[in-house]
Amino acid sequence: ERETGDVLVTFEAETRAIEGLYKDKKLKTIVPSVSLLAEFPVAVVDKVVDKRGSRPAATAYLEFLYSPAGQTVAAKAFHRVVDKSVEAQFKDQFPPVRLVTVEDVFGGWDKANAEQFVSGGKLDQVFGAR
After folding, report:
1. HSE of 15, CA atoms in CB hemisphere, 13 A
2. How far is the C-alpha of 54 from the C-alpha of 46, rounded, in Å?
3. DSSP reduced 3-state for 30
């Protein structure tokens, strides 16, 4: 956006959307062969829906997200989906990638934070402490 960098590291769906916005820039999304699984939890919050009387709408929305129609909307927005039939329809849009979890690679978030993200941790070592 500000034309101040050579690389953007972010979610795959975001890079694909940016490619679409800046077609004249000839941007290219590079998907690594191994990547970290990023899951976005969704839930109906009982206290809120009961107070607002919105449980039916909230529940319907949550169910829609995982329906074939909802998964199709997500795939069209370049999000990888969990519905195998929808995934198959969009297979050409998504290069193969082996997804790993923080638990698998780092032994959980507590351990990852303690080793990777603390001051002087591995992230600082890679990028050089500033």
Report:
1. 14
2. 10
3. coil
Rounded Cα gap, residues 130 and 89, in angstroms: 46
Q: pLDDT, tens digit, for every residue of 92-111?
A: 999 999 999 999 999 999 99
Facing residues of 36 across strands?
100
What's the pLDDT tens digit per position in 51-90? 999 999 999 999 999 999 999 999 999 999 999 999 999 9
Q: What are phi and psi of 98, to 5 degrees?
A: -90, 120
Among candidates 41, 9, 32, 36, which has minimal Cα distance to 112? 36
68-76 and 55-65 helices cross at what angle (nearest 10)? 70
- The pTM assigned to this predicted structure is 0.76
Structure tokens at 32: 């690594």
- Domain residue limits, the chain: 102-130
Per DSSP, which regions of the chain are E strands? 34-36, 98-100
CA distances from 47 to 10, 57, 65 (A): 33, 15, 21
